[in-house]
Amino acid sequence: MLPLERKLELYHWMRLTRTLEERLVALYRQTKVVGGLFRSLGQEADAVGSCYALERRDVMSPLIRNMGAMLVKGATPVEILKQYMAKGDSPTRGRELNIHFGDIGAAETTRGFLGQISPLGDMVPVMAGVTMSFKMRGEDRVGLVYVGDGATSTGAFHEGINFAAVQRLPLVVIIENNGYAYSTPTEKQTAAKQFVDKAIGYGVYGEQVDGNDVLAVYDCTKRAVDRARAGGGVSLLEFMTFRRKGHAEHDNQSYVKPGEVEAWAADNDPIDRFVRVLLDREKVPRSTLEAIDARIIAEVDAATDVAEASPLPQPLDALVGVYADPPAERPLWYREGADVSTLGKERAEGWGTYDVAKGAAL
Amino acid sequence: MAEITYLEAIREALDEEMQRDANVFMLGEDIGAFGGAFKVTDGLMAKYGESRVIDSPISEIAIVGAAAGAAHMGMRPVVEMQFIDFVANAYDMLTNYVATARYRAFLPCPMVVRGPSGGYVRGGPFHSQNPEAGFIHTPGLKVVYPATAEDAKGLMKAAIRDEDCVLFFEHKYLYRRIKGVMPAGDHVVPIGKARVAREGNDLSIITYAATVHKALEAAEQLQAEDGLSVEVIDLRTLAPLDDEAIFATTRKTNRVLVVHEDTRTGGIAGEITARISESCFAHLDAPVLRVTAHDIPLPYAPALEDFVLPQVNDIKVAARRLAAW
Ligand SMILES: Cc1ncc(C[n+]2csc(CCOP(=O)(O)OP(=O)(O)O)c2C)c(N)n1
Fold first, then answer.
1. Would you place residue A338 in the very low, low, confident or very high pLDDT band (cuts 50, 70, 90)?
2. All residues at 6 or more sequence positions from A56 whose CB lies less than 8 Å from its CB, including other chains
């Protein structure tokens, strides 16, 4: 059982996730978010409760709706806001979007999260490789990868989990069953009654849990993480939850059954449920939660100011970093219209310098 | 006749072909009641039912493989990739299986794989790709990439009626920005025939898809600013290439600029340039030049995307250089 102060941390991460997403919605409406915006409203307990079961040295790969897991693993609101706003000093320098960024490497120096790519399922085999490296080097580290119900239909998902299962890798695979993949309901995604049944087919341990109960999510994931660390191989966990927003902000969810969203919102909001646990069972004074909320708002306000004030990337930044060496491509010769005033100037640390003569030559 | 968008033109083609031939059916993610991520198939499930507009799991390999199997048996599947970027997942099916089926085993594969392609929309690296070059390189596949609403409709109808597998790239930047008046009746545009989008005498721009419009804009400006008469050729079909049209414009203007949105190295501009130099060397007054995207994964930030993708000004700079050669 978690001590109370750690339960309050769980509350903090869930509330931060929701507050930050609400801020992103406001920025999106002000057209400050460059691309789409993907919410995890109603799924905060899944992301937060599961990632909270990891140690810092472990590595996690999120899906689009796991911003909460990214925060728990150490991604900051400023980084996330800058990513969405395509800022030049965002973690991917404006090349990639939303939470598609990572910080991975040695356990001591990195936070241990690996940004996903859009093609669904691809991160399962990649995380098999990450955990394979742990096994080969005898490192006491575990990997955790999230997929949606829809992503389980991809070849990459099947191949990745099967591979990890055969190799008995220290990997936890979490299927967030939120009822829909874009407009497609779960029954059109799989003929299986429940995703956890697939664990049998892969020969791995399976468990299903109420995904809107953050403590249950934590406990279930902790067991799987402990099993992986002890050499027990892969676990397949299914979290039962619901996507209360459209696929992205532009999607009005016309395909959802009448009353479905409302029912989940009324009885099953993961934050409301946890607040009831904290107030009624744990006897936490309401003012304690209010103080956390206030701190979070101040933090998100400050992060927004920093992100908004940070610079956009310069066009020529696009040329750097495709390969480790050489560091920069040349601008194509016809780019005489490019803003050459930035040519030849040093970018942020580690970024290329441009030779005007070479860069502008045919 | 009312004007309709590029997107509506594709929908009209799908609708008319489903009406005409009971073997035509559609397969893809969220294409049914939802009508697809871009609403291309909107209303078609209501009209033709769930058995002909089939919502699939997120399984590009299965979708393309199943389409091939059905096509062998006389059906005419039209498959949607939600974004063409995800056709990469089905690359094995398309290149190893579908493309070789007829040659290896006399297995017909009359099917269409269609999907929103291309950039200029701030979609980031996985929602902006132009993977045509990989498929052009594979014998057995046809590749179509229309630039106008009229062609989008006419070529889609041709693609569905074609006896082979046609990869049909739809430019998402054009979906709702380009409109056209559809010719009356059964409007079919033959696969493999390029179009002269603008007549000119001084130099030729050979291009396709979204950059046709950039080239036309550049041509207008070059006429006004420099008095240059620029011919613009819209390829429409990338495999098979219309050599005749490519060579005809080369012989006419003797100066050729090839423009595409896809990256440079290994892109189709290289192939076109090679064909011109092999067949029309004596007609060239200047080397064939290329304006393409940089060889870089497409970035997300607007300033970066604008820099990596070809713009009107890039075309003008290149055209002026070509004219002055
Ligand atoms: C291989 C692949 N095909 C199609 C898509 C387009 N796409 C993006 S998200 C999505 C639905 C994802 O559903 P799910 O995995 O259940 O995650 P959720 O959005 O419900 O969290 C689809 C079809 C994709 N990203 N990758």
1. low
2. A74, A107, A111, A112
Cβ-based contacts of A155 with chain B (< 8 Å): 59, 61, 89
State both tokens at B248: 């005809």
Residues B25-43 have pLDDT tens digits of 999 999 999 999 999 999 9
pLDDT in tens, B90-101: 999 999 999 999
Q: Are the beta carbons of B300 and A329 separated by less than 8 Å?
A: no
Q: How far apart are CA A26 and CA A30, in angstroms?
A: 6
Q: Looking at this predicted complex, what is its ipTM?
A: 0.94
pLDDT, residue A1, reads: 81
Asked whether B64 and B71 are in contact (CB, 8 A), the reply is: no
CB distance B303–A150 less than 8 Å?
Answer: no
Choose among B55, B302, B317: nearest Cβ to A336.
B317
Q: Is the pTM of this model over 0.90?
A: yes
Place of tokens 């979204």: B210
Residue bearing tokens 């950059």 = B211
Q: How far apart are CA A97 and CA A90, in angstroms?
A: 10
Low-confidence residues in chain B, pLDDT < 50: none
Report the greatest alpha carbon distance in chain A. 72
Q: Find out whether the beta carbon of A112 lies less than 6 Å from any atom of ligand 1.
A: no
Interface test with A, best of B50, B56, B59 (most A CBs within 10 A): B59
Distances (CA, A) of A329 to A316, A354, B155, B292, B295: 10, 9, 37, 14, 8
The encoded tokens of residue A151 equal 């992503």
Verify whether the Cβ–Cβ distance B34 to A96 is below 8 Å.
Answer: no
